[in-house]
Amino acid sequence: MSMISFTEENYLKALLRISFDSGETGVGTNELALHLGVKPATANDMLKRLRDKALVDFEKYKKITLTREGKNIATEVIRKHRLWETFLYEKLEFSWDEVHDVAEQLEHIQSSKLIDKLEKFLDYPAFDPHGDPIPSKGGELTKQFRKTLLDIPVGQLCKMVAVKDNSSAFLQYVVKVGLGINNEIHVKSRQEFDALMVIEVNGVESSVSEKFAENIYVV
Amino acid sequence: MSMISFTEENYLKALLRISFDSGETGVGTNELALHLGVKPATANDMLKRLRDKALVDFEKYKKITLTREGKNIATEVIRKHRLWETFLYEKLEFSWDEVHDVAEQLEHIQSSKLIDKLEKFLDYPAFDPHGDPIPSKGGELTKQFRKTLLDIPVGQLCKMVAVKDNSSAFLQYVVKVGLGINNEIHVKSRQEFDALMVIEVNGVESSVSEKFAENIYVV
DNA sequence: TAAATTTGTTAGACTAGTCTAACTTTATTA
DNA sequence: TAATAAAGTTAGACTAGTCTAACAAATTTA
């Protein structure tokens, strides 16, 4: 029942996300610092504190991994984040691209009663508005295999179900292209040279880059 | 649009509450420190910082008052607090005595969009679960005149509408006596010597102290 | 009104979280 | 494999917010 700060929670969450996304267990100091928008020196200091609290395993010049306890805390933060996103989207009529930044704040509210009641109020949702799975209480972060827009061959139809990048910047771009969750996407053509794709959404054609396409999850 | 921290918000809120409750404009350093659970030296340091930000007027050895801007911020924090309390009580089925502590955290979430949407979702409530008025957007903290249980003569009936002290400790005691918002209270007798009262709530009699009675608002 | 008490202030120290600049270790590549 | 580059660490400094201990001003009261 040790006190855990907002900042510490953010470091743990970042470690879980990075290792989850990369598929590798160990995370590097620079990688972590970049993800959090701090300097490597700062991350290094914090990692020593987290090691003292037995939340990460970390030896000098080696990769960082979460301990069981660290992983539990990180998973709980992600669970809270996704439940709050769902609340903002479903109950408060936030748009799909606005929920993330507010949920970044709400995820740190400390009250297990609050999050249990919220989950019940939302009727135990399985996915957040970006299509990401919401871990169950005391559960694990699960990975479902996901196709991106990049995997869809020319001429085929697909449906957007989620995004990889949750930043406001990206999400607003997505909206600008006329794309939203559950929208049908028709892949019209693809340039061999730079993988630039032309897609059609609701009758409107747009060109999107490889970087864009790999951040859109589809079925 | 200067950055204002949780801590600063709490100091401003405390200043508004103390001056509001005491009816006097100026607040003392010790009084403020006591209310916030910090040492007077700490409060003094913070007051200098708040003065630098033009949020309080404060001269050495004089009483502290909020500036216009300081008062606006404090009122907004109280508005957020009371809206969140209403949400917790009405939507998440929190009991009346549990809402305060969680709202203490939620009141610091920075997003005017969030609070506007929340207010709409709750259908623009005028009072929180403790019967305190919720300031309107950009509005003032208003005081309605309030009778306490202490003002009720022996033999008379009254109805509880709010409490003065919002601490969990007090609220749990209130619940233990079988009292809740909108409950009818019958004042059965009062001791001259120490003002100890015997009251009846839902057919059950209890003895309550003067201190207890003056924290129960009634109509 | 002078002494005692209360109230408020200052100085110096500590922690968490951040930085820059310099340094060391590990990994890459010519 | 030796030089270069990338990744990671350390040392020292800064801010916000807190403390204790000592001191100063204002207020109360004998």
What would you note in describing this structure?
- Two copies of one chain form a homodimer.
- With about 220 residues, chain A is of the alpha+beta class.
- Among the domains of chain A are: about 5-65, Orthogonal Bundle (Arc Repressor Mutant, subunit A), CATH 1.10.10.10; about 145-219, SH3 type barrels (Roll).
- Chain A has helices at about 5-20, 30-35, 40-50, 70-90, 100-105, 110-120, 170-175, 210-215; strands spanning about 55, 65, 145-150, 155-165, 185-190, 195-200, 205-210, 215-219.
- The termini of chain A are far apart.
- The mean pLDDT of chain A is about 90.
- The interface of A and B includes residues 93, 102, 110, 111 and 118 of A.
- The structure holds a DNA duplex (30 and 30 nucleotides).
